[in-house]
Design a protein that fits this description.
With 329 residues, the chain is α/β, with parallel strands linked by helices. It has 14 helices and 8 strands. 42% of the residues lie in helices and 14% in strands. Strands 1-2-3-4-5-6-7-8 form an 8-stranded parallel beta barrel, surrounded by 6 helices. α12 runs antiparallel to α13.
Length: 329
């Protein structure tokens, strides 16, 4: 009998893991994390040996008012330093990043200062396909300011093939270090992940870019889809503590680290910060798999209707929500 290889017991050292709990989790609580909570997550990510932590958004305060949204929706330098001190990759071995949205959400030309003056090491630019021209300008701008850059193309499950090809053609000309498959609606299955990861890899071949994966958990496939992308060669993987994120949430970081087998990762600090910080938040806020989020995932829809329904008077009237969604299609 022929012996089979067992690659799952080894690891790929070039694969980089990013925690986006404070950024993506901020969509659950309007980014109203305390400095202590952010510091605890930061210190846990450093101790755990993660490659990146995303501390929040670079969104415009005139669009996202500080009266409603916490500091991590804007990531002013003084706020970040208050939580993480004079962070540096040299002293921690981890890089810090923030996300800037294309479009009206971010006043990126004014908000993003030169990297030499910031605790941030990387800016991740998020865009929908129709915003790729602006996103390319943002990536070049941030690169010129001295940042590493990354491109997250959102809601890819509703984009036509021809549009994906065109946006990837433009992405390959930018200075981004990675282009990320983002399953915003949690709609994708393994076969679609296979197709997209291979398509992305082929499009950026020779451009010096990695392919990344950012999975949402509406169909409870975020972890499965993340490891499928990794098996196919994706070298950037996102996760959040206890899957914290809008709606059904994200790939749980604690499960992902257990799969990766890389001895540089230490699960203990992750489990401790989940226990001390994230579990109390779980009692306050609604996120994670539930039938309404599963329904919007199946229908390839934004989870906003499910979020609204979950916050209403009959959050567990699943049949009523299903009938509502189907009637709107």
């Amino acid at each position: 009998m022929k012996e089979e290889a067992a690659p799952w017991i080894t690891y790929r050292p070039e694969l980089k893991v990013l925690d986006c709990t404070i950024r993506d989790g901020g969509l659950v609580n309007d980014s109203q994390f305390t400095d202590d909570q952010v510091r605890a997550v930061y210190e846990a990510c450093v101790e755990a040996g993660l490659d990146y932590m995303e501390i929040g958004y670079k969104n415009d305060p005139e669009v996202f008012s500080p009266d409603k949204f916490g500091a991590w929706r804007h990531c002013h330098e003084e706020d970040m330093r208050r939580a993480v001190g004079d962070h540096s990759f040299k002293s921690t071995g981890m890089k810090l990043c923030a996300m800037a949205d294309a479009g009206a959400k971010s006043n990126w030309e004014k908000q993003i200062i030169p990297a030499k003056d910031s605790v941030l090491d990387m800016i991740r630019v998020a865009c929908y396909v129709h915003q790729i021209s602006e996103a390319a300008d943002m990536l070049s701008h941030c690169h010129e300011l001295g940042y590493e850059t990354c491109l997250n193309i959102m809601a890819i499950s509703i984009v036509q093939d021809a549009e994906i090809d065109q946006v990837l053609k433009i992405a390959a000309t930018t200075p981004a270090l990675a282009v990320v498959v983002v399953d915003s609606y949690g709609n994708l299955y393994r076969e679609q992940i296979d197709y997209l990861v291979k398509k992305y890899a082929k499009a950026v071949e020779g451009a010096g870019m990695d392919v990344g994966i950012h999975a949402h958990n509406n169909l409870q496939l975020a972890f499965a889809n993340t490891i499928e992308a990794i098996i196919l060669g994706a070298n950037r993987a996102d996760g959040t503590l206890l899957g914290m994120g809008r709606g059904a949430g994200n790939c749980p970081l604690e499960i992902l680290l257990g799969f990766l087998r890389n001895p540089k990762f230490d699960l203990r600090p992750i489990l401790k910060v989940i226990q001390d910080v994230i579990l109390p938040l779980r009692e306050q806020y609604d996120w994670g798999p539930s039938i309404p989020y599963n329904i919007t995932g199946q229908m390839n829809q934004h989870p906003r209707s499910a979020i609204q329904y979950r916050g209403g008077d009959t959050p567990d009237d699943y049949l009523g929500f299903y009938n509502q969604v189907v009637s709107d299609v």
